[in-house]
Design brief:
- The structure is a single chain.
- The protein is mostly helical and 208 residues long.
- It folds into two domains: 49 residues, Arc Repressor Mutant, subunit A (Orthogonal Bundle), CATH 1.10.10; 127 residues, Tetracycline Repressor, domain 2 (Orthogonal Bundle), CATH 1.10.357.10.
- 70% of the residues lie in helices and 0% in strands.
- Helix 4 packs across helix 6, helix 5 crosses helix 8 and helix 5 packs antiparallel against helix 9.
- The protein starts with 19 loop residues before the first helix and ends in an 8-residue tail after the last helix.
- Keywords: DNA-binding, Transcription, Transcription regulation.
- It comes from Teichococcus globiformis.
- This is TetR/AcrR family transcriptional regulator.
- InterPro entries: Homeodomain-like_sf, HTH-type_TetR-like_transc_reg, HTH_TetR, Tet_transcr_reg_TetR-rel_C_sf, TetR_SbtR-like_C.
């Protein structure tokens, strides 16, 4: 039966799509959670998320019954957005510029991940299925951008997506200052500059 009370936002048990207002609330919660978790610190509570999203704590729990469910939903949403950005930018006429923008977005993803509590590790990383599927999606997204830039002769072609991701993650976790994202974005630009310069250099002559 259709719920006429207006007192719940849960989807009916008839396979119907969630109501539009319930879906908007869910998206607001995920947006707020990303911002709150990225900032980290003592303010990264579920109450703070609900407050920023403009919903009651009960609404948050109707969509995400546990803290872990919210963490995993934010995590998966961030990954989906990274993949979508790579698809949107794969035909960019300036492939190196597209690569820089994607790397900046990836740094934001790591910021969200860093800002979450230890429960995130339980929710999103303790399951090998989640972790492997997520990593595979991110590697494929970056690989397409790298291959296109290399095919255009704008960067060197011997740096794989997995290698670059390891370098970026290492830079992210090596920084602890409040402005660490700015620092990592600057360092990632230097990294990409090095790849671009290497592509433009003539082959080294062999001795002898």
């Amino acid at each position: 039966m259709t719920d006429r009370s207006g007192g719940t936002e849960a989807a009916p048990k008839t396979g119907r799509k969630p109501r539009a207002d319930a879906q908007r609330n869910r998206e607001r919660v995920l947006e707020a959670a990303r911002d709150i978790f990225s900032a980290g610190g003592a303010g990264a509570s579920l109450e703070a998320v609900a407050r920023q999203a403009g919903v009651g704590i009960g609404t948050l729990y109707r969509h995400f019954p546990t803290r872990e469910a919210l963490y995993e939903a934010v995590y998966r949403r961030e990954v989906q957005q990274l993949v979508q950005l790579a698809v949107a930018w794969r035909d960019d006429p300036e492939p190196v510029a597209a690569l820089r923008r994607w790397v900046a977005a990836f740094i934001g993803f790591v910021a969200t991940k860093k800002g979450m509590s230890a429960a995130l590790a339980v929710a999103a990383q303790s399951s090998s299925k989640v972790s492997l599927a997520v990593m595979d999606q991110i590697i494929q997204a970056l690989d397409e951008l790298l291959r296109r830039a290399a095919a255009a002769g704008e960067i060197r072609g011997d740096v794989g997506a997995e290698q670059m991701l390891r370098a970026m993650v290492g830079l992210c976790y090596a920084q602890d200052s409040p402005d660490w994202q700015d620092t990592v974005r600057h360092l990632s630009d230097i990294f990409i500059d090095g790849m671009a310069r290497s592509a433009s250099l003539p082959p080294a002559s062999k001795a002898g």
